[in-house]
Protein 1
Amino acid sequence: MNTPLLSICIATYNRAGFIGETLDSIIPQLDDDVELLVVDGASTDNTEEVVRKYAQKESRIRYIRLSAKGGVDQDYDRSVELARGEFCWLFTDDDLLKPGAVAAVLAAIKKDYDLVIVNAEVRGRDLSVTLGRRRMIIQDNKTYAPSSMEHLFIDALHYLSFIGAVVIRRSIWLSRERALYFGTEFVHVGVIFQKPLPGPALIIAEPYVIIRFGNGQWTPRSFDIWMFKWPKLVWSFKDISDGAKLSGTCREPWRNFRKLISQRGEGCYNLPSYQKYFSTMPVHVLWKSCAWLIACFPRSIIIGYHYLYSGIKGPESRAFFNNRFRKRRG
């Protein structure tokens, strides 16, 4: 095939039960300007069998199985290295594209943007319930000049924890530091914000992506990710002001008892977490005592409070809450 303009790069691991549906949403949108690259981090289920069946029928799909799992950051970086397109869409292995998504992205990158961020709607794990109609609450596309990277950071940082939103010029990705961000879970955020982009960025307001909420493979590690890894990454960017960083997260969110309570309600914070992160930490004994009490506090009470709160806010919020805690309960 000719050199494609766009490579849809999926890094996957043990997603045999979901990746077929993802591919079904993408394949009808492929044309000669687009390739679909699936990089498998040595899955131990039948992901390989599922993807190879699609690749046998569609010449624009490439399947590459790695000898070992490198982790989400390394495997996405490897997918960009192996891609042939001028741009790479770092898509996820269990979410879906709506019809027209690829055409919209192709139209955008032909206008010479270096980065395109695609909005999404959020659905429950089985996709039957809509939890949020627009993950980014914007109605019109927004453009950011290289000099406006801080505005992009403020507007898009929270959403960019979702890697499937990112379409980036491959040459920019390869020219930047990546290994520094391996293990952060958000290599794409590090690549984007380590320094200003050479050219403009675009946020597409239309939600062309469907996020399958509550299906993340990192749920068991979410306390470590959101309390430690994410803030460390956000606060590492030298060209972003402290005020902008605060809009994303404080330096040490684990010090905030409300956040600990929320993490406890979600089942991410418990006594083993306390022992691992706080038992030997040199902090005030009163703070430690409160952190220990939160780790012991019955989740059912926290869940009941949040359910009442979400009921007051409305049915969409309640549906979001139900999916969130049903997935994590146990």
Protein 2
Amino acid sequence: MSIAAGINGLWLASLALDGFLLAVLIVKGMWKTFPWFTAYCAWDFLETVVFYFLAGHPGYLSLYPIAESISILLGLAIVYEIFNHLLSMHSALRRLAKMVFRGAVILLLLLAGAVVYIHLPFNFADVRMALMSMEEAARVLEVGLLLFLFIFSSTFGLHWRQHEFGIALGLGILAVAKLTAVTVVQYALSAVGMINLAFLIAIDLSFLLWTSYLLVPERVVSGAVVPDRTQLEQWNEAIMELIHQ
């Protein structure tokens, strides 16, 4: 089988898996619990359909930076959604998380504006490389936030059988795959075919993981099973004191 045929097959598979995942989210009513995650899946489905039919068309290269920018923002929104769920009982920490994510979005928008301004008048090759560098920075941020979440999973009361854990893990696989792809492609353009193949495998694995987690009943973690929760409460109290000073 050629690389092109493999990419085409994996592309169609990701479309089918994404469609099934969206159906699960809607039928089980989980779109109400995870609205940003649902929006991410719906956008990815639409993006896949459009780019599948635009493959090889000049419009593909024009739309890709816009589509990828929206995906990055939705990915950060999912990370915030997970933190928001886990910090629902800790108002100060939730407020801090909101400020951090708002700052991250503003920073990325400023970075995007700087990229556009620096490369006026537009030279497509330069802008393309600049946007890839910007995406690389955004993916580093996304991976860093997810890594922080996993390192302090016991403190946040996050168990591997919770839906939030599955969503974060799948998003982490995607973020690492995208970070690797966008980094490698800048130095090895000849390996684009293999990079796309590996990337699509990572996408399909993420969709399978998300669907499996949402179909299997999650484990409800009680406060008694999470001894480190007191540390989270101490963080919350410390931030509350800083806010009211």
Protein 3
Amino acid sequence: MTTQLTPAEWDSQYSRQAGWTRPTRTYLYRQASLARARRVLDVGSGTGTVTEEIAESTIGRVTGIDIDPEMVRFASGRGGRAAYQAGDAHALPFADGLFDLTVCHFVLLWCRDPRQVAGEMLRVTRAGGTVLVCAEPDYGGRIDYPDLPVGQWQARVLREEGADPCVGRKLRCLFAAPLLRRLEVGVIPGLWDPETLRREFDAEWSLWERSISGHVAAEEMAEVKAADWAATQSGERLVFMPVFYALAQRR
């Protein structure tokens, strides 16, 4: 995302995202036998939030790769178990079949060619190994009540930044069926409970205001924020965002 945040600020956002999808990751890790994997790759590792979770859950060696050198430096400075390096997900700098398990989390929506990235993730995964796409959103399925335009604004900004806000629904078609023994695609029912909406209101709006600024008039944004807060405080606010996952096991 081109929103100007420091790596530490992004780390806070990534940590919140990781909290939303943790139960699904736990399920996927079990299905992929993460605990016994000897080599694991996290594609688009960012600040290392999920990468270090993976490293603490396996006896194997974990590598994180990200296109942003600042993110790589931040993640390397965490002092965790994983190793990090810079690289492009469209051309992963690893040999064929090197990893038992290849993982990504909220990454494909940012990729210029997500099909190519999916192919690269399969290429570097050994026969019998697994690719986990832990979470990819679908803003086209977002529901807001009251009918506030926040999701529409976010989707528009994502498109202008080169992202695909509806990539979630496309996961099944991104993976080459002839290479697969198994493909499971599912959806995380992203319905935020009232307490989470209240607790994360300030953090969410801080990010939205910085990303949407310049795309929406300040007066309109202030009105929508006030309406959002009023509905959140009254308990009437509903936010539903489908987030998809995929588990692809190689032949």
